[in-house]
Description:
By secondary structure, chain A is mostly helical. Chain A has helices at 7-22, 26-51, 60-76, 81-103, 108-128, 155-178, 180-190, 192-197, 202-228, 238-251, 256-272, 280-294, 298-313, and strands at residues 139-140, 146-147, 150-151, 230-231. Chain B is mainly α.
Amino acid sequence: MSLKPLLPYLVLAAAVVLTGLLVDNFYALQVLIFIGINTLLALGLNMLMGYAGQISLGHAAFYGLGAYASGVLTVHCQWSPWPALAVALALAAAVAWLVGLPTLRLSGYYLGMGTLGFGMIVFIVFREGGALTGGASGLVGIPPLTLGGVDLSDPQRYFFLVWTVVLGFMLLCRRLIDSRVGRALRAIHDSEQAARAVGVDTHRFKLQVFVLSAVMAALGGFLYAHLIGFISPESFNFMVSVRLVTMVVIGGMASVWGALLGAGLLTLLPEWLHAFADFEMIVYGAILIGVMIFLPQGLTRGLIDAYERLRRQAPGISSAP
Amino acid sequence: MQELLQYLFSGVTNGAIYAVIALGFSLLYNSTELINFAHGEFAMLGGLSLVTLWAGLGLPLPAALILAVGIGVGAGFLFERLAIRTVRRPDPIVLVIITVGASILLRGVAMILWGKDSHSVPFFSDHAPLAVMGARLLPQSLWILAIAAGLILALRAFFKHSLTGKAMEACAVNPKAARLIGIPTGRMNLLAFMLSTGTGAVAGVIIAPITMCSYDMGTMLGLKGFCAAMLGGLGSLWGALMGGFLLGILESAGVGLFSSGYKDAIAFILLLLILYLKPAGLLGAAKIQRF
């Protein structure tokens, strides 16, 4: 890879380092950490929805699996978080593989409903898990993270941890999209039959990207659980799955930066407009409908299109080669 | 025995409600090949409208019932006109997200209008519960069954004996051919939407007295109605009925046998099973309709 395509990522990395060093407001850091976690989740879901064209309305289940697996192991079994993370990711991957095997044979609405059903079942298991999951009131006392003797509970350090992970996965996804796998996924997105006709093993690729997005969601769950120290089923309900889909759709499907934009916007929106509280659902719904009607490819694509139109209308302004 | 009968009664009552909701899904799917994720919200709209019209404004029951269902029909009209027909790229993923958006929007509107509290309405008639072999049968259960049966008969008559109904069926069978012989398919789609959301509102209205009505009651109802529709075979009206009753009875058996906490999971486990084993549903056509 030459340096030029890396440039935006370097800019983002520089921005992350600067922000991390300059901001020492606890609340601001917390919000930025949440944006990071949501970006990770949206990025994974975007790989599935935007590139492979498969909808998942139960993605919060994997987010929750990561959080609960690590939470249960550290709280009840006194494991250290890092081996718990390995188990959580492996569990999410295994579950995604098992669920994806039959589910991804479906498409469109059927797939949406299948993933939704799966998400609901996982949510109910969290809620009814009794002493193991803490039931409806949740699991408390999840220990903070330490890495090589460094205490990561400090928000500034946690910020760097989360955003390093996010940047790493953004690069990974970018590389994946530009690789043979990425081309195969886009072929599936455009036409599954055509992809199969030219020899793409569509089922295997869909399953792989489903597992990848589940693992990324579980990692997000792990980061969330050890940040807050407390998890409850409501953090992983159907509405959360919908919110994740919203992030992907608003930001723009099939775009690594769209995930960042969508996650950033939808994390900040309620923070900015606290007066919103009761109107949050109306605004969410209206945004979803409006974007789908007017910018079905999301804000990133919509903004680029608008920019190109402007440029064409005023060729004198930007005649730079 | 007595306990078994009690579970059967509650199973059949819930089953009738799931059946009516499933009917709405199948009606719409038949004509437009669309699944409305906001369908349960129209049941919520019907139930809460009844709360306001009957318990709140004191309208006579029949008028309140008709008006509440009318509100569901009108909301369906607006939904189709504003959010479905305006879509530029009607990809399934786009339409799924629009209906999901609409469900959140409707829930948000209902939360503003009716607040976060639960509301209740009295039974349609104040007869004492009947004792059948030691089990209690609520008169409201009979109302639910009677109204569901009436709705089904009316729909059947509409599809079999009216010109509009036949035209709608023609659109469902082959939209292109229907357009060629001069059936206004666009208007038929709109009508299918209104019929579907109207039946959703009927479900909400009849369930209102036996449950607490709140702005978030629709999601679960809609999801379970969808499970029932899938169970019987999406697009098949008889399948919707069978799926509804089957789900209701299995759920109530599950509550009896296991715990009530896992009751909600039964519908989704059945959904996954049917999706994996026989996506066309128990009564569905042999062809697996994808969109």
